[in-house]
Amino acid sequence: MSYRDSYSLYPRYHSYSAAKEQRVGSHLRTLMNLPSSQPSALSSLSSYRSGVSGLSGLSTSSYLPTPDVSEVYPGLFVGDAVAAKDKAFLRRMGINYVLNTAEGKRYTQVDTDHLYYRDCPGLHYKGFQMMDLPTTDISKYFHIAANFIDEGVSRGRVLVHCMMGVSRSATCALAFLMIKRGMTFHEAMALVRSRRDIHPNEGFIRQLQDLDRELRVCRAR
After folding, report:
1. Looking at domain 15-28+39-220, which of 3.40.50.2300, 1.10.10.10, 1.10.10.350, 3.90.190.10 is its CATH number?
2. Would you place residue 221 in the very low, low, confident or very high pLDDT band (cuts 50, 70, 90)?
3. Using an 8 Å Cβ cutoff, are 79 and 159 in contact?
4. In degrees, to the nearest 5, what angle opens at C-alpha 14 toward C-alphas 11 and 20?
5. Which residues are identified as catalytic?
6. Contact 176, 141 (CB under 8 A)
7. What sign for the dihedral angle of Cα 174, 179, 181, 187?
8. Model confidence, pTM
9. How far apart, in Å, are the Cα atoms of 123 and each of 31, 152, 186?
């Protein structure tokens, strides 16, 4: 069975939208100071969101952030800071590997680390301190990320996240598919974009294209 055939067996989770990007963009600072848990008596992402939308007594102008994740490959989820910080949500989703591609306390970074998940037995964490800038050298993390994700999907479910789940995390997910699953840059991009609206910055795109060329040369030897 090809990766395309096996992939089609997995359900689609909530996908990213331009509307949410506008809404969440104005609340980035709020996301960086979220509480560590949300209601846990929920069986899935869809029921989680419907439960939140059904809460009474909320002002129509209020904003309650909810996890935004998409399964872009069997066992591999790309998501945002809200999902990463909601430990109850991670448990409900069966996530046991978390890769934070935006670790830190600066604006647009996500301030989680090993200590943040110390009360989550069996959860494996790795963090990269990166900014979402075209000048950031994300390529130095490609193989580290690919190895971590590969181990995670072989043992359970992996969440790769940044602040919004569209650039840093998406780039690392693409690198995994290229390095560990033998996809070309265009194949990996097409697959992930069929599941989530991702937008790696132009510098990250160039570094992925460089990786594509390097992998092609290695496989031709």
Report:
1. 3.90.190.10
2. confident
3. yes
4. 165
5. 162
6. no
7. positive
8. 0.74
9. 22, 10, 32
